Amino acid sequence: MLILPLHRPITRASFPVVTALLIIVNVLVFFGWQAGDEAAVDRARTHYVDSGLARFELPAYERHLLATNQIDALDELRQLPAGARADYISQVTLTDVAYLDALHAGALFDGAAALEAWRPLRAAYDAELENVFTLRHMLRSSEVDPWRMLAAAFLHGGVMHLVGNMVFLLALGVLVEGALGPWRHLGLYLLGAVGSSAVSLLWRWGEAGGGLGASGAVAALMGAFCVVWGRQPVRFFYWFGVVFDYVRAPAILLLPAWLGWEAWNLMSNADSNVGFDAHIGGLVSGALLGGLLVGLGQVRESFIADDGGRQVDDRWERAQACLGRLQLAEADALLSELADEQPQRFDIRLMRYRVARNAGRHATIAERARELLQADAPDSDGIHAQQGALADLDGTDDALPLTERLGLARRWLAAGALDAVEAALAPLTGEAEGEEADALVAQLWFQLALAHRECHQDDAHARTLRRLAERYPAQPQAAKARFLLGELEGAGAATAPAG
């Protein structure tokens, strides 16, 4: 699921300076200080394996897993080939705070001699790890470190991780920084980062892992946005599976949507390597901070109320009002503009047709009726309106051509509007359409009869079969219709009461 507020364009007057600086800092950290970390980690792992540290730390790590009752992790370790265990330990223990503390305290070694032999080897390895910028600043589960709780919000695990967070930061920063001002916005971002880290630590305490990324701080902006903008309708883009659109809704409604989505993922996708717990912490922290700022009156209400200098498009509402007052020329002009911009809208075509009928302009009525009949009706009311338009054309020089009439009947049949299909086929007598056309019409009559039967509309089923047999007696469908009628008559005779 993706929900992204896109309510306000970036202008010179509303340019989010702090948001832009935060994006620059995140980008510089990733492409600058973090740039060599992958190679540095590889060098450290190679050093670990080559130095022989695993000779001391493999039994130490096994003791630690036993002491902390991590039986599954111990079994996983012992199932690895002997040659792969050193590299495995070098990876899984990078952020295992409890193991590292016990290791450096000397509690996991069997004797002082092993401890003394291990220390210089470990010191050289730790010096290698000190070259990894990310490891020095990322959040580590089971460790309360205020600097890491903040610094982790400026680290990222990959280019797409960075890009995704920066897109959300920009979209939300425009709205939150404008509503709060640059300094309160910066404070919210930093406090939200710490709040998201705190919730993540609380949720993951006792685990051997870590976290990084701006998503917790960005989530804090989400939570604050929902509360600060409150009931103000905002425009946002949503994408769920294959469904996506732009809609307007009160900002506060996004808070339960975002929270619910993160909570569901936290419970059902725990192994996805995504910090849903940090996202929830950020959302809640941001909502609380946003509520505090609203309560203290630290919100720019004028920015929220201002619609960015854009005019609301009210032409549809004005056209409806003009039609209600019978100001037909004004209504028609407004609807013509809308039809040029949004040619697929059924409601615009329908209103243009009604304006033409009210004006009594016969040539325009025919043109608008044809336009209406070419559109897909969204519901039964739309199909009923199309029936009226078809009736207006029948019996005039502008009658709908047979191919268009049959196409319309097929769309109605697919929509289940069986009475409308019968009304569309009723004027066709089988006398002047031609042999090829007769075959197409007969097939539609037969499909309509079967549809009536599926709906248990026995009278309508029999009626359409009789019309088919009478009007198109030479068609193969007529023979099937006569057979089915015979079955119906036989069934009726069998069930008739005796005497």
TrEMBL record:
Residues spanning the membrane: 12-33, 149-176, 188-206, 212-229, 236-258, 278-296
Compartments where found: Membrane
Keyword Transport carried by entry: no
SUPFAM superfamilies, per database record: Rhomboid-like
UniProt topology in membrane: Multi-pass membrane protein
PANTHER family the record matches: PRESENILIN-ASSOCIATED RHOMBOID-LIKE PROTEIN, MITOCHONDRIAL, RHOMBOID PROTEASE
Family, per entry: Belongs to the peptidase S54 family.
Protein name, per record: Peptidase S54 rhomboid domain-containing protein
Organism this protein belongs to: Novilysobacter luteus
Source organism phylogeny: Bacteria, Pseudomonadati, Pseudomonadota, Gammaproteobacteria, Lysobacterales
